Amino acid sequence: MLSRIVFVSANAVKSSSPLGAGLVQLSHLHTSPNSQAPVPALPEKGGKTRHGIIPEEIFQLLYPKTGVTGPYVLGAGLLTYILSKEIYIINHETFAAACMGTVIIYGVRKFGPDVAAFADKLNEEKVQKAQEVKDLAMTSLAQAVLDEKKEQWRAEGRQMLFDAKRNNVAMLLETNRRERVHMVTNEVKKRLDYQIALQTLHRRMEQEHMVNWVEKNVVTSITPQQEKTSIAKCITDLKVLAKVQQAKATA
Amino acid sequence: SLDRFPLGEKRLMDVKLGELGSWLGKRDFTPNGVLASIRNGHDRYYNKYINVKKGGIGGVAMLLVGYVALSYMWEYDHLSEYRLWEYDDLRVPTTYNIIHLKAL
What we know:
The complex is a heterodimer of chains A (251) and B (104). Chain A has 251 residues and is mainly α. Chain A contains 7 helices and 2 strands, in the order ααββααααα.
């Protein structure tokens, strides 16, 4: 029970003494700095002791020869021997030791389990924190793996992107070609229209010139003789028309 | 069955009683060897009684009892003045008790 607190605080005093618990433990678990073997788990319970101070091995050693009470008889005999031969001297400190022993045993019996539970809780919290860190790391790494797979899938879609880009470029080229075709058509049409306009102009000019020339010639060819006869004819025609008109009006 | 192995490499419990002396002679008493044996003993005790998930009081209690016993042994010469009787004769008190009885 006390050893549990020792272990809990062992890490704190690890660096304070050269033979500190943690250092010794660490220096003997992995002999090379690169070994990847998992650290073996701690044993659940320590070596068993009878009444707290006598290891169980003594009892197991003496059991075949002396049975269950052997070690107790051994203890009683030893006690008698050292008392009678005054290897242990009864003095004033014996009383002090007896009082302290009583108090210690009473305290351990009464508060032992509570302290043990408290130390266990501390250990539990530590382990839980480490486990949380490990779980967090695991989930984040798994998520990273998923993200990586997704990125790989996305990279496969690049082909579609390239196709779209190729289509874009082809469309641009097509548009350019059509624009140029239109331009060519327009230019050719303009030139042809010009030629047509030129020809019509020629024809009109020839026509007008011819008409003018014919008119001029006709006008100059009207002799005064013809003019007089035509005027007389006109007058007679008018008179006839007037007569016809009068006749129509009175009729 | 353990006779084939050289003496210096056997463990204490496997050594026969008659060859105990020669086994002791073969042990490594250089400073490095002594330190190594101290460290080994410390490791064995520590890993058996203290470096466990649910240790009991035995791990620390045995160390304290050992400390008490060792300090008693170192103080024995001084404490022997306070003996209650001389040697095996319970009737003869020691010097200390004679003085105190006389004072009474």
